[in-house]
Structures are given as C-alpha cells and as structure tokens.
Design a protein that fits this description.
mainly alpha; kinase; transferase; kinase activity; Serine/threonine kinase with two-component sensor domain
C-alpha cells in the first residue's frame, strides 16, 4: 500500500491520497497492534487523525470524515470496545451518504454484530 501511496502522491491527487492514507493506517493498526497501543486511534506512519481531523472538519471533507469514523467504528468493534463503537456508529450515520455503498454494507454488518455483542455479553 505504501507504493500506491507514493504513486498517488506523485500524481498530486490530494483527496485520493488522504482517503488512501486513512484506510492504510486502519490496516496498519490491524496488523501491527502492540502492547499499550490504542488500535482505533488512527495515528501512525500513514495518517495522523489528530492533525487531519480538524482539517477535514474545517474544509467540510465529508468523505474523509466518513471514512475516518467508519474505520474507528470497525476497529473499536473488532477490538471489543463496544460502547465506544456504539458512540462512533451514531456519529458515522451522518456521513453514510458520502461513502460508497460497499462501506454502507459493512457498516450495517458491523452494526448488527455490535448490537448482538451488547445484548448478549460473552
């Protein structure tokens, strides 16, 4: 994915680059989780939500906000932070119409699993 990031950056596709960076960081968080790491915090080599979130809000980049909240939602679900995932799901609903239909499908899938996890604790 790093090679694709470089190519996208060389082509000066800033919006695509930012969207790709969000997804790349989410994947890095999944495969490189370490002790003491907060896997749903998208801060690392590909993307820094602490720097970019204010920029996305300021420019009203709803696509980036939707992707960011989706990945935070799915990572929180996958790492069993269910109450935080539920909070993220509520925020993300506002941005569903800015995302591809495939992500809406994943949102519904994870949302259903989240409801089950909350209702039937293991």
């Amino acid at each position: 994915m790093a090679a694709y990031s470089d190519i996208i950056n060389q082509l000066k596709q800033k919006t695509v680059y930012q969207y790709h960076a969000i997804q790349r960081q989410a994947i890095l968080n999944l495969v490189r989780t370490t002790e003491g790491c907060v896997p749903w915090r998208l801060v690392g080599e590909a993307y820094d939500e602490e720097q970019m979130l204010p920029r996305h809000r300021r420019t009203n980049d709803r696509g980036a906000l939707g992707l960011l909240y989706f990945h935070k939602f799915s990572l929180r679900y996958l790492f069993q932070a269910y109450s935080q995932a539920a909070e993220n799901a509520a925020v993300m609903e506002e941005y569903l119409n800015t995302l591809p239909g495939s992500i809406a499908g994943y949102y519904n899938f994870y949302g259903a699993l989240l409801h089950l996890a909350i209702m039937i604790p293991i």
